[in-house]
Amino acid sequence: MQIAIITGASSGIGRSTAVQLGRRGVAVILTYHGNQQGGLETAAQIEQAGGRAVALPLDVGRSETFPAFVHAVRSALTGWDRTTFDQLVNNAGIAAAAPFEDTSEELFDQLLRVQFKGPYFLTQRLLPLLADGGAIVNTTSNSALPSGLTPGYSAYGSLKGALMVLTSYLAKELSPRGIRVNSVAPGATRTRLGGDAFDKYPEVIAPLAARTALGRIGEPDDIGRFVAALLSEDGAWVTGQNIEVSGGFGL
């Protein structure tokens, strides 16, 4: 039995990834922050389909809590007669936009803690528990790519770009252990980020769909299915890559 850890799986891309992995027979340790009910619902959805799941609280923006989280992970693994896990998806995140001249240090630091510092040091803390031959996927964004450059995302996009660079370094440094590391860059996707922005401002959907070659915005399953496939043996010869999954945004 393989085991995956997925951060930020109470909704959206994280939930889809967790459910898709559960359908493939992977046991899932998923995290939530600020949406406990959503995290429990994700775990219940996996278990109702015959899978195994544990939902744990985690604030990736508070690295001082990581030792306690690792302890909780060890306990969950013991319950499944394992001491290691096989797959890590650094997905938890927040979205915030502001023009460059209006971006405060407070906003920048918040994004830094969640989007880059959190995945960096959480991965470091979990690395001793990650089995040789395992796989890591980091959720980045096409806002860090030429295809997705959008005014107002200078901080968000820059930090997602830093996560892309970290992906390459981890792929290099962890390769002696056979650990693959890739990142996936979604385009505009219907999630709860930005305070349920698409529900609050549905008028932005049509212009985004018009900029997308396949004619619509993304849905969580568009990304979750791909992440699950990349983590599987189907992606066994892929490492060090940032793969845009956006339906051809900007083509």
From TrEMBL:
The UniProt keywords, alphabetically, are:
Oxidoreductase
| Protein's organism | Kribbella flavida (strain DSM 17836 / JCM 10339 / NBRC 14399)
The record, for InterPro entries, names: NAD(P)-bd_dom_sf, SDR_fam
- The answer to whether the entry has keyword Oxidoreductase is yes
Domain of life the protein comes from = Bacteria
Query: Is the keyword Membrane assigned to this protein?
Result: no
What is the protein's given name?
Answer: Short-chain dehydrogenase/reductase SDR
Q: Which GO terms describe its molecular function?
A: oxidoreductase activity
Give the UniProt family note.
Belongs to the short-chain dehydrogenases/reductases (SDR) family.
